[in-house]
Design a protein that fits this description.
transcription; 13 helices; 50% helix; 5-stranded mixed sheet; 298 residues; DNA-binding; transcription regulation; 5-stranded antiparallel sheet; AraC family transcriptional regulator
Length: 298
């Protein structure tokens, strides 16, 4: 089994890639300074963002591969395992990046909002592909953070560093939204597959497997739940969970209008463990209980 390196500190990462440690909790890295390397896998205890400048190996996330070529950004969160495919040769890493420890942002607005940057949980084939202009913006943000790191530490340092990291992440959010638009045809195909999978699930599986989750459909389409959810949101204006629930309510309405079955029977058929839960969800979406809806339709 491949050895996995546990990277827990900035200094540990910097020593591995021949980088100077200017701050114990954050580093702007230039991977061209690293020595030639062979394949390795790393379990990150850090946040990281890497801008690939040339093709130099296929980056692996878990057991899958990143769509990770020149002009591509990949973001990594603590707890993720990444590495490079072993081709039997050494390679020279090239590119720029940012790594920062979770302790850097503790007590800041970024600590509260970091979960909103869902691209930290994207997986294989979900990297961010930049135009030349976008690449320049990312490099400018990295240079501003580096300039602050090279400045002597004072009472303003942490706020300015974190503010510039947040700016960089906001730009990545904008660029990902652009990417969702430029890949519209692929996204439409994904939405069609999602719709077909939902219909099939409610026809054949809901009684035995229960209420479906976003992860279930994301796995079927081979996307991470976060990327899948963001894609559905961009295409429909609704979250994937809302989309599933609206489909559920549509099926429920048809079943409720059939007087041969009790509301409890319908609830169990739709995958609810408790009829009361079904009644609450139905009323929240429709504005009345299933029994009231049945009376209105009779």
């Amino acid at each position: 089994m491949d050895e996995i390196l546990n990277i827990e500190t900035i200094d540990q990462y910097n020593k591995l890639y021949n980088q100077e440690t200017l701050h114990p909790l954050v580093s702007v890295v230039d991977l061209s300074k690293s020595k030639e390397r062979r394949y390795c896998r790393m379990n990150f205890g850090l946040y990281a963002l890497f801008l690939k400048e040339v093709k130099c190996g296929d980056m692996r996330y878990g057991r899958n591969y990143y769509d990770y070529q020149e002009g591509t950004v990949v973001c990594i969160a603590p707890g993720q395992v990444v590495g490079f495919e072993d081709t039997g040769e050494v390679y020279q890493p090239k590119g720029r990046g940012l790594v920062f420890h979770p302790d850097l942002i503790r007590g800041t607005s970024l600590a509260r909002d970091i979960k909103n940057y869902s691209f930290f949980s994207y997986e294989s084939n979900e990297a961010l592909h930049l135009s030349e202009r976008e690449r320049g913006i990312v490099l400018d943000c990295l240079n501003k953070i580096l300039m602050e790191l090279e400045h002597s530490i004072d009472k303003h340092s942490k706020r300015l560093i974190v503010t510039n990291i947040e700016l960089l992440l906001d730009y990545c959010t904008r660029f990902y939204e652009r990417q969702f638009i430029t890949r519209e045809s692929v996204n439409k195909d994904t939405l069609t597959r999602f719709e077909n999978l939902i219909n099939e699930y409610f026809q054949n599986q809901v009684q035995t497997e229960g209420l479906p989750s976003v992860k279930y459909f994301a796995d079927k389409i081979c996307l991470s739940p976060n990327y899948f959810g963001d894609l559905i949101k961009k295409e429909t204006g609704k979250s994937a969970q809302e989309y599933i629930q609206l489909k559920l309510i549509g099926v429920a309405k048809d079943k409720v209008l059939n007087p041969a079955k009790t509301i409890s029977q319908i609830a169990y058929e739709l995958g609810f463990q408790y009829p009361q839960h079904f009644v609450r969800v139905f009323k929240k979406r429709v504005g009345c209980t299933p029994s009231e809806y049945r009376l209105q339709g009779s």
